[in-house]
From TrEMBL:
Keywords: NAD, Oxidoreductase. This is aldehyde dehydrogenase (NAD(+)). GO terms for molecular function: aldehyde dehydrogenase (NAD+) activity. It comes from Lentithecium fluviatile CBS 122367. It is an enzyme of class 1 (oxidoreductase). Its EC number is 1.2.1.3. GO terms for biological process: carboxylic acid biosynthetic process; polyamine catabolic process. Residues 28-494 form the Aldehyde dehydrogenase domain. The lineage of its organism: Eukaryota, Fungi, Dikarya, Ascomycota, Pezizomycotina. SUPFAM superfamilies: ALDH-like (SSF53720). It comes from the Eukaryota.
Length: 502
């Protein structure tokens, strides 16, 4: 076997062939420089595999492949239903390889296998099928009411060559959110995975080829953000950039994308509030507050990481929440069936969460659970005990900054107006949740919260059919749902002169 593939056996015993190359033109190739990045198992800090890392020259090759495919009649003129069929085929191949993909995701990222298998892979398959169905249902409009001498209509065109930069917290799901709408509408793609989780995306390359996409329609790269990512964002022959990641990197990408005024979609950070009113169903509020912050090791951009509780039930909520977390947030080996929380993705993220724990303590917030590394997993790995700070003040770093870990800041409020004002007192505006049994108050508050998404009596139960995205410094544009198609099409207006007078 060439060095472009390696036979691996995962910790759960599953054997598979891991691609190591850059996936360009439906083939795996080595990077020009020979540079690689090594993926680490966050559960025991061992090396899993090294894969080729793209530099600017490789990015040029991938973009040229995507441009050629974009212009090629085999893709450009493909019947829209046939394009949808290719996506349906891809979804069924992902289903066939579901266990292997879930294994890679857990091994590389650290999320529990049960979650990878049901949630992540369920979302991937669902998203690809959802957009497969849209492929032949995206059309323009005839615009009447201009003049009898004019026929005006619009057609929806693909944007062109799309660069897609994805993060490490949901590698395959983020790939699906971006590939689905881009391919359904006839674009071509150069995607770059996060350097922390390079493996599953390459395995997906196998399935793209097998599904029958023409060469160059989907190109998948690994590589460092500052090299490969920046080369994509600055590339003069890339028409669009779609990015999910931190707000700081999103701002960098916006600047770089200005070079040729790329179309941009950005989904960035958050510090989402969850507001618990006195009149809520307490059990529901506790259950969803837990999921809202502790799911996926707290590594979710929409995590409801600030919990604001009305003073009448503050003590009761804190007690019930602590108890629920201690019962349900089982930390451990992500391949064990009862594990709810695996390790943080990398040492850097692990240390970042620990530094916020120190910050919370030194700023005087009250630590009531966790607050340290979780050691009981063979002495290795990036595990953190689920951490709860209460009586957190609005000026504290742990209240204002995104931690991205199993870490929550709880604070109390008196009135509805105060809750809204404090929920909105952030530079972010991604998600928000609120708990009340008063239907009028629920909708009133939902309207006044500055966020792209508000959950009433739940948290983070997003849905692939519903638009997802942020306001303020949480992003630009929407993914998922019908809105996700807007991000990958341009409207072209065609004016037909029906007369001879002019
Ligand atoms: P995090 O801080 O959570 O790792 P980032 O926003 O840095 O998140 O990373 C998200 C994605 O953006 C990754 O694929 C990463 O490689 C990429 N990236 C990071 N820095 C840059 C950059 N300067 N230009 C383009 N892409 C980048």
């Amino acid at each position: 076997m060439s060095d472009l593939f390696v036979e691996l056996t995962a910790p759960n015993g599953r054997k598979y062939k891991q691609p190591r190359g850059l996936f360009i033109n439906n083939e795996f190739v080595a990077s020009k420089s020979g540079e690689t990045i090594t993926s680490i198992n966050p559960s025991d800090e061992s090396e899993i595999a090294s894969v080729y890392a793209a530099g600017p020259e490789d990015v040029d090759v991938a973009v040229a492949a995507a441009r050629k495919a974009f212009k090629d009649p085999s893709w450009r003129d493909m019947d829209a239903t046939t394009r949808g069929d290719l996506l349906f085929k891809l979804a069924s191949l992902i289903e066939e390889h579901r266990e292997t993909l879930a294994t890679i995701e857990t091994w590389d990222n650290g999320k529990p296998y049960s979650v990878s298998l049901s949630d992540d892979l369920g979302e991937v398959i669902g998203t690809i099928k959802y957009y497969a169905g849209w492929a032949d249902k995206v059309h323009g409009q005839v615009i009447g009411g201009t003049s009898v001498m004019k026929l005006a209509y619009t057609i929806r065109e693909p944007v062109g060559v799309c660069a897609q930069i994805i993060p490490w917290n949901f590698p395959l799901a983020m790939a699906a959110w971006k590939l689905g709408p881009a391919l359904a509408t006839g674009n071509t793609v150069v995607m770059k995975a996060a350097e922390q989780t390079p493996l599953s995306i390459l395995y997906l390359g196998n399935l793209i080829k097998e599904a029958g996409f023409p060469p160059g329609v989907v190109n998948l790269l690994n590589g460092e953000g500052r090299k490969a990512g920046a080369a994509l964002a600055q590339h003069l022959d890339v028409d669009k950039i779609a990015f999910t990641g931190s707000t700081a990197t999103g701002k960098e990408i916006m600047k770089m994308a200005a070079v040729n005024m790329k179309n941009i979609t950005l989904e960035t950070g958050g510090k989402s509030p969850l507001v618990v009113f006195d009149d809520c169903d307490l059990d529901q509020a506790v259950k969803w507050s837990h999921i809202g912050i502790m799911y996926n090791q707290g590594q979710v951009c929409t995590a409801t990481s600030r919990i604001l509780v009305q003073e009448g039930i503050y003590d009761k909520f804190v007690e019930a929440f602590k108890e629920h977390v201690s019962k349900t947030s089982v930390v451990g080996d992500p391949f064990k069936e009862d594990t709810f929380q695996g390790p943080q993705v990398t040492k850097a993220q692990f240390e970042r969460v620990l530094s916020y724990i120190e910050s919370g303590k030194s700023e005087g917030a009250k630590l009531v659970a966790g607050g340290e590394a979780y050691k009981d997993v063979g002495g290795k790995g990036f595990f953190i005990s689920p951490t709860i700070f209460i009586d957190v003040k609005d000026n504290m770093k742990i209240y204002r900054e995104e931690v991205f870990g199993p870490f929550v800041a709880i604070s109390s409020f008196k009135t509805e107006d105060e809750a809204i004002e404090r929920a909105n007192d952030t530079t972010y505006g991604l998600g928000a949740a609120l708990f009340t049994q008063d239907i009028t108050k629920a909708h009133r508050v939902a309207r006044l919260i500055e966020a792209g998404m508000v959950w009433i009596n739940s948290s983070n139960d997003s849905d692939i059919r519903v638009p997802f995205g942020g306001v303020k410094q949480s992003g630009i544009g929407r993914e998922l749902g019908e809105a996700g198609l807007e991000a990958y099409t341009n409207k072209k207006s065609i004016h037909v002169n029906l007369g001879t007078k002019l």
